[in-house]
Amino acid sequence: MKLLLFFLGGILSLTLCFPIFALDWIKLHEEAEQISLQEAKTKVSSHPDSIENLYLLGLVYLNLHQDEEAEETFRKILDIDISSIPAQWGVAEALRRRYDCEVCERLLNEIIKASPQFWPAYNSLAYLKFLQGEFDETAKLAYKVIKQDKNEVDLSNYVRAHGLFAGSKGMIAHYGGPVSKIVNGRLILPYLKKAQSLKPDSAIVYFGMGTYYLLVPEAFGRDLDRAEKNLKKAIEADPYFVDAYVRLAQVYKTKGDEERYSELMEEASSIDAKNPLVSDIKTRKCKFICPGKPDK
After folding, report:
1. The domain that contains 88 carries what CATH number?
2. Under DSSP, is residue 115 helix (H, G, I), strand (E, B) or coil?
3. Number of domains the chain is built from
4. Do 197 and 206 meet the contact criterion of CB atoms below 8 Å apart?
5. How does pLDDT run across 33-60, given as a tens digit for each residue?
6. Which residue, among 136, 118, 138, 112, has the nearest Cα to 127 in the 3D structure?
7. Cβ neighbours, 10 Å, residue 135
8. Residue 188 to residue 191: CA distance in whole angstroms
């Protein structure tokens, strides 16, 4: 009897230490890139209490920028297993996209503390830090994802981390002195090209390349035609990618096409009026860089 109680006690302690419903989140993130919303809904309809199917549906909602539906789906998982780290991240990511930044940041820090190898949380927190102007912290968080073995991260998050790292280095170079411009500026394109080699049709990659060719100084290769081409492809790949509309608008403004600039800015606002880049450019604060405006 003592042996039996010891054995049962061991099982109980394990269930307290580890989630009962462990998810293969990498596999599910990869699958979410391949299936339609209807296919994901059908999976949930056939097994409504399947955490795996619910998480997959939540990811598809995120990919389609249906953030309220995503949050609702991830919360259904938490009703079943409150300890689910992937579902906790899903809620935090939905909140981030809806600009509930204070709550989101607290949740992400808790997730990283509880599960240091859940890499999507690092990218989500890196996005927040970027918007807060903490570009060094953005780079550090993104680099933690980059230095992982590719088998430890889903491809989209691995590519996204390269884009975040490149973007943060661009901002650091922009605001830094001559040495910073050289040291950090030279890192941007190699990381973007690495991302491109991994997932060439990614909206993130097209956006990164387009932004680079728009914002890089003329002496180092500014190319408005290449910027325009890449940003158009970013929008084709993801029609709800608001930042791509704004950067494309800036391309046309730089080319002198004020009408097209205004059209694209209005289109961006109609998709997401709260988007920080939309506000930044419309108000000409240019925290995230306006082409032709001198460095701070």
Report:
1. 1.25.40.10
2. coil
3. 1
4. no
5. 999 999 999 999 999 999 999 999 999 9
6. 138
7. 22
8. 6
